[in-house]
Automatic annotation (TrEMBL):
Keyword Plastid applies: no
Taxonomic placement: Eukaryota, Fungi, Dikarya, Ascomycota, Saccharomycotina
The protein's name in its UniProt record: Unnamed protein product
CDD domains noted in UniProt: EF1B (cd00292)
GO CC terms of this entry: cytosol; eukaryotic translation elongation factor 1 complex
Biased composition (Acidic residues): 56-77
SUPFAM superfamilies per UniProt: eEF-1beta-like
Amino acid sequence: MRWTQDPSTTASQADVTVYKAFQSKYPEFTRWFNHIASFTEEFSSLPAGTAPAAAAEEEDEDDVDLFGSDDDEEVDEAAEKLKQQRLAEYNAKKAAKGPKPAAKSIVTLEVKPWDDETDLEELLANVKAIEMDGLTWGGSTWVPVGYGIKKLQITVVVEDDKVSLDALQSQIEEDEDHVQSTDVAAMQKL
């Protein structure tokens, strides 16, 4: 906006009042403030002018909050109370349902012996001797691989949160006299 009038005739005491109020609360209005500040020496001699009444400006100033205010804290507190209330309702509803059943998986493991002279019944007994919380051994079968060697296929049901398949395989493979390696042949969630 470009001033077309003589600036010395456009400022008034009302401008001074508004200038001081805005300068303290809204420093972003520097252009207008700088214009009015150019009359600092003449503030007491400026004419009354037709600017809005300073009292009305001060009352409206509280209503129009362009840059946020302390009222945001009240809104934040209300939002936090609502959040806490909803969390409490959610937790109560969740507790009323009771615990979910444990997630389980059916796994088919392949256990490969070292050679055709490995005692397969002892290998099976050693595998089934492994006990873990959440582990249930199922049926087993011998599958021919070739050259007279058979591998053990054994089904196991595991609780996913309690039994790590990697740990189970490592424990089976600790039987170095009988077990060459293990693999997961199949896995299905229950």
